[in-house]
Amino acid sequence: MIITTTNSIEGYEIEEYLGIVAGEVVAGINMFRDIGAGLRNMFGGRSAGYEDEMQQARSECIAEMGQRAEALGANAIVGASLGYETFEGMIMTVASGTAVRIRQVSTQR
Question: What's the whole-model pTM score?
């Protein structure tokens, strides 16, 4: 499954647009990571706990979106985007894009 933020894929032709697909993940951050992030906020530095959680959520989100596209018969997703929101100690990650069926363009002349 090719997943790209662009609207086309070099060397491929979009044969059919199958619809918008999305993946959603809402992940809680444990209190120890919250405490560590609060200290880093006061004194500066990166929050590895939050970064790890966001990376995990992003991977799960993209995988879920890909599964939903495959269920529609797609072999690619174009125009993919990611969004993040935080609320009440949780991180919500959403990935969306357009599921498409593509075919490789012949380069023989």
Answer: 0.77
